């Protein structure tokens, strides 16, 4: 039922997506400058991944962060759609010459649609969210969906593949690169499997992924990012690298309500293209957008942006535990399920930090501030 997929090459992506031809664990040698990050993401316009992109660009503009690049993987969307949205994102923010976009894996290592369909049929439940698998895979530019403000007009994908960019960046900055892993882990698994020499050179990986001691979302047991490519997750979690997990355990407790939504969407003194898109794309339930009626009790989880907040302010994590974490890759109800071990872990696992609770008020201030700053951002020379 399972079969190995080969990632869609960046060359194939460039041939069919508009404007996609090239554009412009360790502490050794740790830099005293701002943290250097790679954002490895199943990118979207302005849901959680896109919001993190905005926040990271604003932090770079103030000199607090150095974004080396955005590496895209299929997950929320197919690779081509994610790359297209990421290109528009950096162009919209005015950082297209400083933050490159790199196309990565289009398919999971070994979690194909036939397997997924059979599992969901035999073991129903969950919220039904399948990400890219919910839509036809785009085969040409005409299959892509433009953001509300249109496709990128001049920003193009880098000629280097995502996995090669990860390898090159880690070698260029040994002991300095943090990877924010906010999508399926296929790109990271491929980079570290093909070039194991980079593993001791990675400063740390911070994940949004897994459901350790709470139910899953896509299935009753599994969180979406790790469910989409469980083999990749199992591989990367075993790497001897400093790792921190932001699982559903904490994201279930960090909720956007109407008051928080209004702080971003409806402050009359801070209206930008970002706040307008935020309102357009996230207004359902709050403003009655997209056919939804307004619900005063509506809330939604906040996910990926917690990884960036934790990187910049580890004190935001008010409760953490250290456990060994594994992911199930067997066919069945637990495919993609994460398990934390407090003792006697299976061989090969790495002990890591799991965040359980966040300082929500402090995070909300951080979140609102960065999402409502002026755009385009003004980066330092």
UniProtKB/TrEMBL annotation:
Gene Ontology BP annotations: purine nucleoside catabolic process
Signal peptide: 1-21
Domain Inosine/uridine-preferring nucleoside hydrolase: 37-365
Alphabetical list of InterPro entries matching this protein: Inosine/uridine_hydrolase_dom, IUNH, Ribo_hydro-like
Superkingdom of origin: Bacteria
Gene Ontology MF annotations: purine nucleosidase activity
Family matches, as Pfam families: IU_nuc_hydro
A GO CC annotation given for this chain: cytosol
Keywords linked to the UniProt accession: Glycosidase, Hydrolase, Signal
Protein name: Nucleoside hydrolase
């Amino acid at each position: 039922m399972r079969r190995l997929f080969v990632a869609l090459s960046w060359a194939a992506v460039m041939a069919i997506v508009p404007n996609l031809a090239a554009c412009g664990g360790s502490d050794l040698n740790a830099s005293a400058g701002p943290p250097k990050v790679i954002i490895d993401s199943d990118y979207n316009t302005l849901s959680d991944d896109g919001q993190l992109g905005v926040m990271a660009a604003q932090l770079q503009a103030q000199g607090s962060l150095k974004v080396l690049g955005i590496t895209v993987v299929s997950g929320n969307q197919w690779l081509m759609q994610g790359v297209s949205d990421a290109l528009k994102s950096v162009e919209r923010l005015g950082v297209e010459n400083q933050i490159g976009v790199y196309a990565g894996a289009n398919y999971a290592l070994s979690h194909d649609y036939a397997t997924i369909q059979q599992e969901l049929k035999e073991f129903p439940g969950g919220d039904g969210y399948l990400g890219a698998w919910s839509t036809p895979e785009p085969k040409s530019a005409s299959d892509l969906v433009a953001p509300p403000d249109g496709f990128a007009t001049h920003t193009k994908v880098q000629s280097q593949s995502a996995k090669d960019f990860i390898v090159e960046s880690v070698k260029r900055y040994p002991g300095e690169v943090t990877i924010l892993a906010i999508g399926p882990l296929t790109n990271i698994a491929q980079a570290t499997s093909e070039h194991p020499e980079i593993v001791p050179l990675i400063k740390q990986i911070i994940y949004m992924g897994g459901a350790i001691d709470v139910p899953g979302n896509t299935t009753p047991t599994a969180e979406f990012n790790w469910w989409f490519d469980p083999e990749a997750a199992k591989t990367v979690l075993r790497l001897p690298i400093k790792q921190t997990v932001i699982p559903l355990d904490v994201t279930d407790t960090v909720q956007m309500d109407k008051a928080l939504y209004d702080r971003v969407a409806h402050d009359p003194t801070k209206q930008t293209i970002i706040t307008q898109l935020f309102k357009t794309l996230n207004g359902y339930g709050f403003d009655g957008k997209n056919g939804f009626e307004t619900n005063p009790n509506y809330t939604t989880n906040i996910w990926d942006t917690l990884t960036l907040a934790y990187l910049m302010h580890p004190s935001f994590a008010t409760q953490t535990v250290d456990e060994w974490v594994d992911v199930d890759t067997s066919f069945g109800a637990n495919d993609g399920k994460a398990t934390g071990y407090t003792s006697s872990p299976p061989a090969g696992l790495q002990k890591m930090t799991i965040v359980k609770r966040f300082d929500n008020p402090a995070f909300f201030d951080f979140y609102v501030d960065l999402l409502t700053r002026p755009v385009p951002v003004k980066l330092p020379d």
